[in-house]
Amino acid sequence: MTLYGNGGTVFDVALSPDGQHAATAGGDGTMRIYSLDMDELAALAQARVPRSLTAEECQRYLHLEQCPGDLPESVGFVRPPFLRW
User: Fold this and answer.
1) Domain map (residue ranges) of the chain
2) Which residues pair with 15 in a beta bridge?
């Protein structure tokens, strides 16, 4: 997974106890918190592919038995959500 947002080097990454969030500390002095919710990540992954994923692709890349819904006809670029403090 690529997490966008920190400028430059990332010095540390920590996971929340429930595994739902990752926090990064960057060389630019920022800390970012990212959602690791599987449903949200699956939707983001599907948004980056200009077609519906096959059942095999959902199992292989998203570790899901079935893909959650079809893609809209036109998909734009989506960055992972994060909080900036």
Assistant:
1) 1-36, 37-72
2) 22
**What residues of the chain score a pLDDT lower than 70?**
1-6, 68-85
Q: For residue 84, how many C-alpha atoms fall within 13 Å in the half-sphere facing its CB?
A: 8
Torsion angle, alpha carbons of 47, 53, 55, 59, to 10: -50
What's the pLDDT tens digit per position in 42-57?
777 777 878 877 888 8
- Check: CB of residue 11 under 8 Å from CB of residue 32: no
Q: Do residues 85 and 21 make contact, with C-beta atoms less than 8 angstroms apart? A: no
Q: Which residues contact 73 (CB under 8 A, 6 or more apart)?
A: none
Q: How far, in Å, are 4, 28, 29 from residue 45 at the CA level?
A: 14, 27, 28
